[in-house]
Amino acid sequence: MHHRIFFRPLLAGAGLIFALAAQADPALLKSEGPTQPAKVDDGKYTDKDGTPTYRVSDGGKMVDWSSMSGYLRYNASCIVCHGPDGAGSTYAPSLVDALKTDDYATFVGIVAGGKKDVNASEQLVMPAFGDDKNVMCYIDDIYVYLRARSDGAIGRGRPAEHEPKSETFKKNEDACMG
């Protein structure tokens, strides 16, 4: 199952207009942090490889909608095991640290399919969330939020301000959630 399809723009015209605006205003592609967006499509940012990424400004206070959505979804589904802000807990590892080495495909694969690391000293088991729409419909957003945290572009706690949720995001969200 390919989960990125949930976030493909439904309105190509709206995405084209936003993309043209981004070409006219390079500031829309400027972000704080080491990962710079290369493209914006109706409020969704991707890096030079086409991987979902963040846009952060104003000293980490203003974030894109995907980062905000990811923060909210992380706190609804992931915080119980991985602790506040993706920093890890005694129960599960830091996702902020994991994303320093794990790429997007690895992250999605683990979230969707789960993971077991069992040895003599510990038993780490990540359940599979591939059938959980509350996670998979927002997997790109959760990744973007954690990527921004891992890069140090977003600090701990709730971002102070965010870009608005686009109409395309709303339509994709409705389609995915059913």
TrEMBL record:
Coiled coil: none
Presence of the UniProt keyword Metal-binding in the record: yes
Domain Cytochrome c, residue spans: 65-150
Pfam families per UniProt: Cytochrome_CBB3
Residues of the signal peptide: 1-24
Location of the region described as Disordered in the Swiss-Prot/TrEMBL record: 31-51, 155-178
Keyword annotations from UniProtKB, A to Z: Heme, Iron, Metal-binding, Signal
Record field: compositional bias (Basic and acidic residues): 39-50, 158-178
InterPro entries: C-typ_cyt_methanol_metab-rel, Cyt_c-like_dom, Cyt_c-like_dom_sf
Domain of life: Bacteria
Keyword Nucleotidyltransferase set for record: no
Protein name, UniProt field: C-type cytochrome, methanol metabolism-related
Originating species: Methylobacterium marchantiae
